[in-house]
Amino acid sequence: MTHLAVEIDGPGAHPAAGHTLDPFDPDVVVRSARLAEDAGFVLVTLADAAQGGLEAGVRAAYLALRTHRIGLAPTLHVTTTEPFHLATQLASLDHASQGRGGWVVGAQNTATALATTGREPLEPDALRREVADVVEVNRALWDSWEDDATIRDVATGRFLDPDRVHHVNFTGDTFSIVGPLITPRPPQGQVVVLGADTLGVTGQLDIALVGGDVAARAAAARAAGAPLVFAEVEVLIDESGERRDTADSWAPSDRLRHVGSVAALRDLIDRLGATVDGVRLHPAETAVDLPLLAEALPADTLPAEALPADAGRPASSGTLRERLGLPRPANRFAATVGEATP
């Protein structure tokens, strides 16, 4: 099975995509997420409001109670958000969505992006260490509450077992955190972490995102320890050639790119399925390409059980980890560590 994810933020991946979508209109992102959910996509991602508007984590939280099956993964940057607040925000997203939270690791490192933080851009090695530190401390903080730490015993007035809430005592190059987190452990145990293989932290990811020479980079990501690998594919659906001018003005990128029919895109995904576990699609124009993808693609790509049985949305259909086939990790601080829950 090839899992499908889709980026739903903003007007689209093409720089000339029509700016007809109001970045401050919450109904825009809801419509896009529900299109993908009803079609059977496993995951939607939300970029960091490149076109302006509300922060990606806020929009993902808004979607948590307005979707029911699909995973929700905002891009949040390790360089511009305090690690403790980042871990709290993502744990809260997982609770609000009943275990459908994800995180696309971002690492903005320009003077403009860092202007409000008072920081200077980091050298490549320092940036890689910071990304690694923030991912590691997030994972430690998500484990800082054991699964059974919450008691809620009204008779005795005990809310939690303090012996099952732990300090993480993490010290990195640029920050230190004592912990614990201020929210219980996420329903998934660990939020699903996605990131580009170019970040240099592939072994810390749940899903490595690869472009370019997909076969070679997927093999390298697996060798580095990534459980799953998704190919990055930009998509412009053009069945008749009427959008050729748009395609011709699209500058190259590190992602694969498909311009053409849905049938040809299916063939591409089938070929990629030999080397990757999934594909993250980036519609050229969200308002145009996403409805076409949602209507025509997943039914032939995803297994029948992943598709909705009717027009209604069930209350839940499992966590994002379960849909991806990822185990629920054991808690690193638990006194007795049993087998991870599948």
TrEMBL record:
Residue ranges annotated for the Luciferase-like domain, each copy included: 17-196
Segments of this protein annotated with the region Disordered: 304-325
Keywords: Flavoprotein, FMN, Monooxygenase, Oxidoreductase
Stored Pfam families: Bac_luciferase
MF GO annotations: monooxygenase activity; oxidoreductase activity, acting on paired donors, with incorporation or reduction of molecular oxygen
InterPro entries the record matches: Diverse_substr_monoxygenases (IPR051260), Luciferase-like_dom (IPR011251), Luciferase-like_sf (IPR036661)
Source taxon at top rank: Bacteria
PANTHER family per UniProt: ALKANESULFONATE MONOOXYGENASE-RELATED, C2H2 FINGER DOMAIN TRANSCRIPTION FACTOR (EUROFUNG)-RELATED
Name recorded for this polypeptide: Luciferase-like monooxygenase
Organism: Cryptosporangium aurantiacum
